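Could you help me review a protein record that somebody else here produced? Here is the record exactly as it was handed to me:
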Amino acid sequence: MSSKIYVGNLPYSVTNSILESNFAEFGSVSSAKVMMDRDTGRSKGFGFVEMASADVAQAAIKALDGMSVDGRSIVVNLARPREESRGSAGYGAAGFKARTREDVGYGNGGYGGGRY
């Protein structure tokens, strides 16, 4: 079973290959991915590494958490599952849905405004 690790506070100079090589010292790395900004193409400063086993992942976390990389103290821990969005507005299964605040909008406090 593989274990996914979150790596945060990375310097913007870190690439996928650098991230993989740092974790490969502890065991087999299934994948290493630095998250990139879609608009700028620049690193977001965090990434994910998938290790082959949970034991190897724990050893890497213990050794690398708090380590200084280019003057930045990195954060290394087990990745949590992605949380579901609250769905308060936007596109969803039922199509576009506007926000449901009752104190804002027409008819609730004058011409076109709510309480501000």
About this structure: Helices lie at 16-24, 54-64. Residues 28 and 42 are 27 Å apart (CA to CA).
